[in-house]
């Protein structure tokens, strides 16, 4: 489902290698498509944390936007604990002012949800660290559709933000902890990344495919994507471009590491979580 169209062109560019203004997007989420299964010791989706207790569970479902693969299945039967699906992502290497885009697909299984209007929120908190309760910036989207719905929102990294915390939080009409059953898939937290030097076909890796691009354009009066910015002959594909490719061979764009948040730190943000939702129209 990494190639699922409704996840947006950002995701398609990251997976398919499509150029985006001579840049590509990197999905920072680990197992955002829930294809990596469950951790054998915790039975929680790989790469994620789950803070539900009692009869509140997370599992996998075969109901997906694309009709194949798996999605996360949150079954919240009681207002108990913090039934939140969470992932912390290290963004310390990203510069201040970097735009992050969260995209996710969600489906509410209404037959399992209460009669009153409830929803699940996809949220991003930008924090100084996984141990900090200080929220420097945040963004969110609400999902209520009984069919698969895809939403996106942007958030700008402020100074001092080193962790992006993704949360999926069921809510009731009072913005407290809600119940219901929700399916989640195609979670992408992406940021456009400057082209990888030597990556002539713009697919996020400097490899043999880039040699083919150089060979096929050898002698052409043009500049290859991600070529040497200090080239002596910038408007000509020549042996200099080959040497530059060789010097960068093996470089790849890699996902950022994922630290684990603690339940105590998650709980510290409840007050901000409720306050920030009270302005929902």
How are the secondary structure elements laid out?
Blueprint: H1 9-16, E1 23-27, E2 49-52, E3 57-61, E4 71-76, E5 81-90, E6 99-108, E7 119-127, E8 137-143, E9 149-156, E10 163-171, E11 180-194, H2 208-217, H3 239-248, H4 263-268, H5 270-277
Antiparallel strand pairs: 1-11, 2-5, 3-4, 4-11, 5-10, 6-9, 6-11, 7-8, 7-10
Keywords:
Jelly Rolls; 2 domains; five-stranded antiparallel β-sheet; alpha+beta; 281 residues; six-stranded antiparallel β-sheet
What can you see in these coordinates?
- With 281 residues, the protein is α+β, with helices and mostly antiparallel strands.
- The chain has two domains: 5-194 and 254-277, Galactose-binding domain-like (Jelly Rolls, Sandwich); 208-248, no CATH class.
- 15% of the residues lie in helices and 31% in strands.
- It has helices spanning 9-16, 208-217, 239-248, 263-268, 270-277, and strands at residues 23-27, 49-52, 57-61, 71-76, 81-90, 99-108, 119-127, 137-143, 149-156, 163-171, 180-194.
- Strands 1, 3, 4, 6, 9 and 11 form a six-stranded antiparallel sheet that branches.
- It starts with 8 loop residues before the first helix and ends with a helix.
- The model is unreliable at 1-24 and 272-277 (pLDDT under 50).
């Amino acid at each position: 489902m990494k190639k699922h169209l409704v996840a947006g062109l950002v995701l398609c560019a990251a997976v398919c290698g499509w150029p985006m203004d001579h840049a590509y997007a990197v999905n920072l989420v680990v197992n955002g498509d829930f294809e990596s299964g469950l951790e054998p010791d915790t039975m929680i989706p790989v790469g994620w944390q789950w803070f539900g207790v009692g009869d509140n569970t997370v599992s996998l479902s075969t109901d997906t936007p694309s009709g194949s693969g798996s999605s996360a299945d949150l079954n919240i039967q009681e207002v108990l604990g913090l039934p939140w699906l969470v992932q912390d992502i290290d963004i310390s290497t990203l510069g201040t002012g970097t735009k992050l885009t969260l995209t996710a697909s969600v489906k509410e299984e209404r037959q399992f949800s209460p009669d009153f209007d409830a929803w699940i929120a996809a949220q991003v908190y930008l924090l100084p660290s996984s141990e900090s309760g200080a929220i420097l910036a945040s963004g969110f989207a609400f999902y209520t559709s009984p069919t698969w719905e895809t939403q996106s929102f942007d958030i700008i990294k402020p100074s001092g933000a080193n962790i992006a915390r993704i949360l999926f939080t069921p809510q009731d009409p009072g913005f407290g902890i809600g119940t219901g059953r929700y399916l989640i898939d195609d979670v992408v937290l992406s940021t456009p990344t400057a082209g990888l030097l030597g990556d002539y076909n713009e697919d996020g890796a400097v490899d043999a495919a880039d040699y083919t691009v150089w060979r096929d354009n050898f002698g052409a009066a043009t500049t290859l994507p991600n070529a040497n910015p200090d080239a002596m002959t910038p408007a000509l594909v020549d042996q200099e471009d080959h040497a530059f490719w060789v010097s960068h061979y093996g470089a790849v764009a890699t996902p950022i590491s994922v630290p684990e948040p603690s339940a105590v730190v998650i709980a510290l943000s409840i007050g901000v979580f409720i306050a920030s939702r009270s302005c929902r129209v």
